[in-house]
Amino acid sequence: MNNIYGTIMAYSYMIFFLTKNLIMRYFILLAAIILFSTTSHAQSKSTNSSTYKTALGVKVWDGGGISFKQFIEGNNAIELIGYFWNRGTRITGLYEIHGPINGATGLQWYIGPGAHIGFYNNKNGDGAFAGLDGVLGLDYKFKGAPINISLDWQPSFEFGTNRGFYGDWGGLGVRYTF
Predict the structure, then answer these.
(1) Which residues of 3-42 are buried (b: 16+ CB within 10 A; e: fewer)?
(2) pTM for the predicted model, two decimal places
(3) Could you tell me the end-to-end alpha-carbon distance of the chain, in angstroms, rounded to an integer?
(4) Which structural domains are found in the chain, ordered by start?
(5) Are 149 and 123 in contact (CB under 8 A)?
(6) pLDDT at residue 127, rounded to an integer
(7) pLDDT tens profile 135-170
(8) 51: which DSSP letter?
(9) What is the pLDDT of residues 60-119, one digit of tens each?
(10) Rounded distance, CA 81 to CA 77, Å?
């Protein structure tokens, strides 16, 4: 388990020092603090279960991201995602409502609203832009292993010049569960 944390921290340090944006440095530092505060007093109780309370991992699609998911009340969760790719960085917060899929232990659907702020450097305009998000996806927790995977679609609307609806966000998430 210490090897997992060491690997995560090594990547966090690498991303931290390669990121020139001060806001992203603070976000990465906050994610590392949350990781250590969560894991310093919690062993993975979810290993032999098909449910989990907290998860930390990666999300990939057109680039990569760090994903932190925390169930806050019953089947409701918040997910924080920091995306990094060649056109910029995007920080997203989602509120997800989960529901079981009958006959498929460990598999759940989820849907919910969210918001983001993006820092871009592309042909559609450099700068910072804010937007609203939605999410629709499937979430699976492996019984007998502290691993969770998810696949979702995350349409968004961004405010600003040359901005608008984007239907190509989402991704495949692989997370370690606590």
Answers:
(1) eeeeebeeebeebbeebeeeebeebbeebbeebeeebeee
(2) 0.72
(3) 12
(4) 43-177 (2.40.160.20)
(5) no
(6) 83
(7) 999 999 998 899 999 999 999 999 977 788 988 888
(8) -
(9) 887 789 999 999 999 999 999 998 888 888 999 999 999 999 999 999 999 999 999 988
(10) 13
